[in-house]
Amino acid sequence: MRILLTNDDGITSPGISLLAQALRKAGHRVFVLAPDSDRSGFSHSISFLNAPCKITEIERDTWSCSGTPADCVVMALLGGIPEICVVDGTPPDLVLSGINRGANIGTDIIYSGTAAAARQGGIGGIPAVALSLIEGDGSWYWDVTIAFIVEHLEEMRNYWKANTFVNVNFPNTAQGASALVPAFPSVRYYNDGIVTYAAPGGGLYCFARAGKIQTTPEAGSDWDVVLKHGAAMSAVIIQPVSKERA
């Protein structure tokens, strides 16, 4: 399979580099194009509408980008890097975004750059999956999660359908996920605040004050599934469809 791999944590994140290694070892052709630094929370921002993006080759089939996660997918699919889909006119078989360091549960999807990159792939008519590893006990169990992804890659791809992207959250435990479980996105409340300081020369400086996240514990939701050690798999609609296409 020919796979475009991106993320929002940046090109140096272990989630993307370890996943790329494992997918290549499994025989897939993997093109990595990811932001040159952390772009978490950028949602579906498209930066190159106002300024050009710089693409830098890191190694064979691996590039960094000065833009956002969505920029990476747009540029890859529109020919910014000929090796990906222009040389023979064939787009990738799959867009993967992640593995994100932290959950993208329910309402998180609105803000997530990880989700946005997968959404952009789906907009382009390509099967697209966002992958996230939830926060755990302080350790990050990349190996077991990556082994699960490689083993269930075709299943996740087949769950995709037109006008959606697939969002998958994995439990962060040494045992890994028990199974892929279809789920619906949960509702989260962030309880954030703002701290402001008046500058001596005028103006206000505003800083985020993170609140304690509350997640509605509905049976069958993505949060419910990961709490029960499953990999929660949700199909997220990305654009309206007509009655005839629904």
* Mean pLDDT across residues: 94
Between the first and last Cα atoms, what is the distance in angstroms? 28 Å
User: How many whole angstroms does the radius of gyration measure?
Assistant: 18 Å
- Structural class category: alpha/beta
The outline comes out as globular
Keywords, please?
single chain, 246 residues, alpha/beta, nine-stranded mixed β-sheet, two-stranded antiparallel sheet, 13 strands
Structural commentary:
This protein is α/β, with parallel strands linked by helices and 246 residues long. 26% of the residues lie in helices and 28% in strands. It has 8 helices and 13 strands. It has helices at residues 14-25, 69-77, 82-85, 108-111, 113-123, 142-151, 153-159, 222-227, and strands at 2-6, 29-35, 55-59, 62-65, 94-101, 128-133, 164-170, 180-182, 188-189, 193-198, 204-209, 214-215, 231-237. Strand 3 (55-59) and strand 4 form a beta hairpin. Helix 1 (14-25) crosses helix 6 (142-151). The radius of gyration is 18 Å and the shape is globular.
Summarize the structure.
The chain has helices spanning 14-25, 69-77, 82-85, 108-111, 113-123, 142-151, 153-159, 222-227, and strands at 2-6, 29-35, 55-59, 62-65, 94-101, 128-133, 164-170, 180-182, 188-189, 193-198, 204-209, 214-215, 231-237.
How do the helices and strands line up, and which of them pair or pack?
Elements: E1 2-6, H1 14-25, E2 29-35, E3 55-59, E4 62-65, H2 69-77, H3 82-85, E5 94-101, H4 108-111, H5 113-123, E6 128-133, H6 142-151, H7 153-159, E7 164-170, E8 180-182, E9 188-189, E10 193-198, E11 204-209, E12 214-215, H8 222-227, E13 231-237
